[in-house]
Amino acid sequence: MAALTSQVALVTGGGSGLGHAIVTRFLEEGARVGVLEISPAKANALAEEFGEDVVVTTGDATVYQDNESAVQRTVAAFASLDCFVVNAGLWDFGAGLEDLPADAISTAFDQLFSVNVKAGLLGAKAAYPHLRMSQGSMIFTLSNAAFYPGGGGPLYTASKHALVGVVRQLAYELAPEVRVNGVAPSGMGTDLRGPPALGQSDTAYGREDADREMKSWSPLKVAPRPEDYAGHYVLLASRRDAAVVTGSIHVCDTGGAVRRDPDLAEDK
Predict the structure, then answer these.
(1) Domain that includes residue 254, residue range
(2) How far apart are alpha carbons 104 and 84 in whole angstroms?
(3) Which of 50, 189, 235, 243 could anchor a disulfide with 210, C-beta 3.0 to 4.6 Å?
(4) Which has more confidence, 94 or 38?
């Protein structure tokens, strides 16, 4: 039997990159899926790709009413909600303190934290009543930057550290009815964008650049694809395999936490 047979999930930012990989894998594992996606073009593409197995709500994860609408439409279509995946996010493309314009830091902070932290809380608030009834789970997308430097600039790193606290606090508050966990992947080539205040709303981290950088510092010398991480979400959503797991964050960073200096590492 597939791991998520008869389950219903809602994924924010499911129109591309990691979010799309999660949607695809959940469907393969037997789930039915709702998606909250800010891009109308990506929302339409999802609907065309997956048909009636996916209910797509076009909206902004930083707006409570849009989260509530996505929850309601998902429940109306599939009769329940078992898993809420917080995946929408922004990156800062590694902009360091010296690189941040003094007149843009405040606005960039608000924009990035609004998506990376506030949106997750708003979505959790909207999803919680249904997850409580289903004895379900929440899964937050974090990052290697949630645990050590080098995965972004200070804005991004601070936002992902904040999410560690959100996961642990919600796991504490919502037990025993709802399990709350996180997945902390490393970098990958996706359509992830940055704060408009930093001029990064149309900037994307291309696959070629991501592959080269990941291989340079990964002990495993691999360049992950979004689908390489999707199984961690399946595991944490599984009622059978993760029944005793809450407050946990799966760090899947290709060994980045134990990485060696690439100048000292033996070429392989």
Answers:
(1) 8-258
(2) 33
(3) 189
(4) 38
| pLDDT interval class at 31 (50, 70, 90) | very high
CB 205 within 8 A of CB 152: no
Residue 217 lies in a domain: yes
Q: Is residue 228 part of a domain?
A: yes
pTM: 0.91
Q: What is the mean pLDDT of the chain?
A: 89
**pLDDT (tens digit per residue) in 195-248:** 787 777 666 666 566 677 777 767 778 777 899 999 999 999 999 999 999 999
The tokens 């999802």 sit on which residue?
46
* Cα(93)–Cα(96) distance, integer angstroms: 9
Residue 17 falls inside a structural domain:
yes
The neighbouring-strand residues paired with 56 are: 35
Contact between residue 71 and residue 61 where contact means Cβ atoms under 8 Å apart: no
pLDDT, one tens digit per residue, over 130-182 is 999 999 999 999 988 778 887 778 898 999 999 999 999 999 999 999 999 99
Exposed / middle / buried, residue 97 (Cβ in 10 Å: 0-12, 13-18, 19+): exposed
The strand pairing partners of 182, in sequence order, are: 140, 249
Q: Which of 64, 128, 148, 156 is catalytic?
A: 156
Residue 148 appears among annotated catalytic residues:
no
Number of domains into which the chain is organized: 1
pLDDT of residue 264: 41
The enclosing domain of 73 has a CATH number of 3.40.50.720
239 half-sphere exposure, CB direction, 13 A CA radius: 17
86 within a domain of the structure (yes/no): yes
